[in-house]
Amino acid sequence: MDPVTKGWQYYVMDSEHTPRVSIIVRTKDRPQLLRRALSSIAEQSFTNWEAIVVNDGGDPKTVESVIGELPPSVSQRVRHVHHSESLGRWPSANAGIARSVASLVVLHDDDDSWHPDFLAETVSFLDAAPEEYGVVARTEVILEEECDGEFIESGRYVLEAHNEEILLTDLLSFNRFVPIGFVYRRQLHDVIGPYNESLPAAGDWAFNLAVVSLQPIRYVSDRPLAYWHQRPGARGVIGNSVHAAVDDHAFANRLYRDQQLRAYAQTEGLGVPLYASAVVADVTNRIDGLTSAITQLQTRLDDLETQNDRLAARADLILHNLSRTIDTRIRGWVVRQKNRLRRSR
Q1: What per-residue confidence (pLDDT) applies to 244?
Q2: Which CA distances in Å does 99 have to 82, 102, 152, 241?
Q3: What is the rounded distance in angstroms from the CA atom of residue 198 to the CA atom of residue 83?
Q4: Is the pTM of this model over 0.90?
Q5: Which residues pair with 152 in a beta bridge?
Q6: Which of residues 333 and 4 earns the better pLDDT score?
């Protein structure tokens, strides 16, 4: 086997034994979730894969024990990388990719899972479409809660079910798909580089933006093949970042946008950003003005509703008193008429 250097990455090529897909699994101190993830990988109908488990500062023995539970035919295709201390999400992703050998790559977070046909369908799609840099599987969000070491499903829905394909305009506001559903050609890293390690979160969003800047990304089919497990109420070690690390995501969003703005300004100057910021500020001021006007109108409507309630209550009281007055007078008239009839007899 001859070592081959390609851009930032270094790996070994052996055309006879090289797997088709490299699966990168990042984990730290979550053996029950890692066990589920590896089972999901082991159950794939497509078997020409390798898995690199990157243990980001967790207990090495725990990770090795979970891998050791797999059947030998599966565990022999699973390698592991141990970090003595936590380096973060995206250094861990890059560490796994740098040690992988396949021409196709997918990040499989340790708390997510796949349909058994996920690899079979995505690999078949890319084989039939060599011009495509990658493909996304429909992803089903599975909401779950931890109970006595088990994860109980509480609901599910398909992520971005309305989108027919993923365009650059779709991703500019926020990420529309997650790593568990995205299989891509490793050559993308030669063009784009590694995942952005300066971002505490959303490194996949930054990478995805670079990909769709080259071409749109298609869905392999309408059938959900990837499962993004979420535990909205969970924090700590079993929390998933979209809920447990909201501040990281918010900061990464601002940081990456700032990085891109500065890169643009260095080559194109500040003209367009300054003009755009003025337009945004004007629109924001107009929106604030409209919001204030709507708030004032709502307050006035509330006041009118209160007055209307008072008037309605007053009208009810008047009607009540009028009814009693009329009733009393009618009764008096009837009594007087009866008395007259008696006297006339």
Answers
A1: 65
A2: 12, 10, 35, 25
A3: 18
A4: no
A5: 145
A6: 333
